[in-house]
Design goal:
Layout: E1 7-20, H1 32-37, E2 40-41, E3 44-45, E4 47-51, H2 56-64, E5 81-83, H3 86-94, E6 99-104, E7 113-114, H4 124-129, E8 135-143, H5 149-158, H6 161-169, H7 180-185, E9 198-204, H8 209-222, E10 226-232, H9 235-244, E11 249-252
Parallel strand pairs: 4-5, 4-6, 9-10, 9-11
Antiparallel strand pairs: 1-6, 1-7, 1-8, 2-3, 8-11
Function: Part of the ABC transporter complex PstSACB involved in phosphate import.
Membrane topology: Lipid-anchor
Protein name: Extracellular solute-binding protein
Length: 256
Amino acid sequence: MFKQKKWGSRCLKWALATLVTGLLAGALGPFGLEAAAASSVSGQPIIVVSREAGSGTRQAFVELAKVQDSQGDDNITVEADVLNTTGGVLQVVAGNPAAIGYISFGSLNDSIQALSLDGVAVSAEAVRDGSYPLARPFNLAWKEDGLSELGQDFMSFVFSKEGQAIVESSGYISPGSKTTWQEQAAGAYDYRSGGYKGQLSLVGSTSLTPVIEKLAERYEKLNPGVKINVTSNGSTAGFTAALDGTADIGMLSREL
């Protein structure tokens, strides 16, 4: 059982941005996506676009936006178009002015628009000060004492000055609170290559993948003998892969 395992994890804070195309503006009402589905844009029913069951992004959105039934279970409309990746949600929402969906702040691009919530626009500053409420951490997780020296060196790079600059420039948000690891690493030192060689695998969240790919690319340039394989197949798959040892690190867009 998961609770019997010992895990390590390091967090990158993130935001869930509620997204629409140009013809729809304003925040979702208090009844979330069910209310939006009953509305219309230019006489057309709104197309609700959601992630698949098991997606960390979906779980976070359901909990934070309270799209739940009286038992606290997922209550996103059964008529929603369900997509398995962040890219799929972006493509459908961008291509249909009547569509509305949700993705992470770091995946936001010029093809869509982000809704304000209670008059607050999503931004790194609004997430940090708590005025934008749909925010939750990303997690990189592994079995405690199960991460190789190469994996530990990669994590040191992630939380170095250069690594955190990549995180911020990619539209993600560095941790606000500090753990012992973060006190040592978050912007506190310049990374120096340890000359490691070998392969490292990261599996999981499609929302976390873009920034991890950028971090991996830079790390490989600093360490030419290293190959990092990043597989984007969802938080549940990342959790399972880290748990059974088929991946070195699981990428999760939800709490452990």
